[in-house]
Specification:
This protein is α/β, with parallel strands linked by helices. It has one domain: Rossmann fold. The protein is built from six helices and six strands. It has helices at residues 33-42, 63-81, 117-126, 140-149, 161-166, 182-192; strands at 5-8, 46-52, 87-91, 134-137, 152-156, 177-179. It has a six-stranded parallel β-sheet, sandwiched between helices. Helix 1 crosses helix 2 (63-81) and helix 1 (33-42) runs parallel beside helix 6. The longest helix is centred in the middle third of the chain and has 19 residues, at 63-81. Its cofactor is Zn(2+); Mg(2+). It is found in: Cytoplasm. This is D,D-heptose 1,7-bisphosphate phosphatase. Its main location: cytoplasm. The active site is at residues 9, 11.
Length: 197
């Protein structure tokens, strides 16, 4: 039976927004994030990272560095609250017109938000019902991805969220819910998903 999922952007949602993180130890969780993810784990709701990570495509660092950042993210979630992400999907590519310079990673991809590739791949692999799922992010492209994939989109005002709402960043978007941070977003999502989903 297909199950609902909660997809999470990384920077500005799970960890502090610092632009391209060049030192692994600079990845630091936002307040109350680990507890929020643990709340999803405790309800056995599939929790999945869905993140554009084009630093390697831009030539800033290697793919191995992106993997190391993901490992640190999982380590911090576990250490702080015994929490975990059930799956990780990242789009590491970027087309040349957008700034991609690494020949192995510089191409257009259906995985890059707001395209639906990451969510469709996750749904196919893990038996997820996208129509009952949620995408939490701090950018308009996160909300666009949610709607393009048939999910509900939650915009958090951490990270770039405030700038999105004010119209100073990306473009105007109509999220299904606005929350101050992931903890508030997860509280709302848990109120929407039946206990026996």
């Amino acid at each position: 039976m297909l199950k609902p999922a909660v997809f999470l952007d990384r920077d500005g949602v799970l960890n502090q927004e610092l632009g391209y993180i060049r030192h692994v130890e600079d990845l630091v969780l936002m307040p109350n994030v680990a507890k929020a993810v643990r709340s999803l784990n405790d309800r056995q709701i599939f929790c999945c990272l869905a993140s554009n990570q084009a630093g390697a495509a831009r030539g800033y660092y290697s793919l191995e560095h992106i993997h190391a950042l993901t490992e640190r993210l999982q380590y911090l979630l576990d250490t702080e609250a015994g929490a975990h992400l059930d799956a990780v999907f990242c789009c590491n590519t970027l087309s040349p017109p957008e700034g991609g310079v690494d020949p192995e990673l510089s191409y257009w991809s259906t995985w890059r938000k707001p395209n639906t590739g990451m969510l469709v791949a996750a749904a196919w692999k893990h038996d997820l019902d996208l129509s009952r799922s949620y995408m939490v992010g701090d950018k308009a492209t996160d909300v666009d991805l949610a709607h393009n994939a048939g999910c509900k989109g939650v915009l958090v005002t951490s990270g770039y969220g405030e700038k999105v709402l004010s119209g100073d960043y990306q473009h105007a978007t109509k999220p299904d819910r606005v929350a101050k941070d992931l903890a508030e977003a997860v509280d709302w999502i848990l109120s929407q998903i039946p206990a026996n989903f």
